[in-house]
Amino acid sequence: MYRPHRRTPSSPITTSVHAGRHDFRSLGCHAAPIDLSTTYPFNDAAEATEALDALVSGDAEAGNPIYARLYNPTVARVERAVAEIEGAEACVAFSSGMAAITACILAASERGRHVVGVRPIYGTTDHLLSSGLLGVETTWTGPNGVSNAIRRDTGLVVLETPANPTLDLVDIAEVVRAAHGVPVMVDSTFATPILQQPLFHGATYSLHSATKFLSGHGDTMGGLICTSEAAAARLRQVRVATGALLHPMAAYLLLRSLPTLPMRVHQAQASAIEIAERLQAHRSVADVLYPGLSTCDPSGIVGRQMAGPGAVLSFRLRPPARHATSITRAGDVPSDLYQAFFNELSMITPAVSLGSTDTLIQQPAALTHRILEGDVQDEHGITPDLFRLSVGIEDVEDIWADLSRGLEVFARRCEPSRRPLTLAPVMA
Ligand SMILES: *Cc1c(COP(=O)(O)O)cnc(C)c1O
Fold this sequence. Notes:
With about 425 residues, this protein is α/β, with parallel strands linked by helices. The protein has helices spanning about 10-20, 25, 45-55, 75-85, 95-110, 125-130, 145-150, 170-180, 190-195, 230-240, 250-255, 260-280, 320-325, 335-345, 375-380, 395-415, and strands spanning about 90-95, 115-120, 135-140, 155-160, 185, 205-210, 225, 285-290, 310-315, 350, 360, 385-390.
């Protein structure tokens, strides 16, 4: 089996600062050069043909880039940097997280056109696999059902941990064992390479939507797959054929974001730990889903597979008392109550996506996971009372002040009769 490189002796914090910059001194630059060429002149036709053949067959580089769909030096630089941070042999970049997932499914379908998907998973990944759009058949299961779901034509097992939006944790090594040699793709977007390196637990592909924490500033879309050099070659072939390229400007912005990745993750995580505890104690909150809470991590994955619980959490608003008896599913809670909560947030950004410098909040059932069938939503608890919070790097007290204002308004709107408007007694 493929064994990833041992992590370089320096700390991941230092690696994140220096990865992708090793040739800067010899180039005489201090910021990454951006190459926007779409085509490249050649001096020797035979050499050009040789370079073209090498790149089309999946080589990481060749004597001449030939054409931007085959190779771009700025993109190759961010690929090398992320591979180094993750401790992987290779990394292949795509135009978005979904483009990366698509390439992975297409590359693996060579082995067999059946996929085992572990739910819950990002809504669009669920849709991509359920719709049959890519010509693969998918069997959905939970982490314990993987072994039974594997068939002779299974080409790939797809899982996400922590999973979107319920923060379910999956033991990667256990799924790898259950997969009986079928390659396992782990969507590690929530964890980032700073908190989790799936290849060290036997996964074949570690995938990131670079749109999230890796870029981290809400201005760049991208997808990255860390893997072995052999598997990367196949992914590059798919990329050459399908053209889902990371733009060199996006690669530059990603390179610029990597040095602060550990700081951003650690700062946001520290606040998320604090906010998860405060949310748990709040009367408007029915439940908090966060890997840092022992109830959410009974088998101790944080500390073993993850270096920390991360900066994304979800919570359920407590259904209003006057509606509680008539509620059959959380969707029956009047949406104006949720809107009242959103309206009260002045600093926290109501928006999809995650891993940005600012704190983001959204309602998965209404947005990121709306595309799922209703019964899949219900089965995995993706009901309208569930909110996903991506904690940013602001001061934790400012995040909490904003959030708790919204929660108080929600609580008051839920219990109007119990809290009549009275004038505060005048202090003597
Ligand atoms: C956002 C996200 C994706 C999709 O990435 P895009 O860059 O939006 O295409 C996939 N998986 C997870 C876990 C995500 O959060």
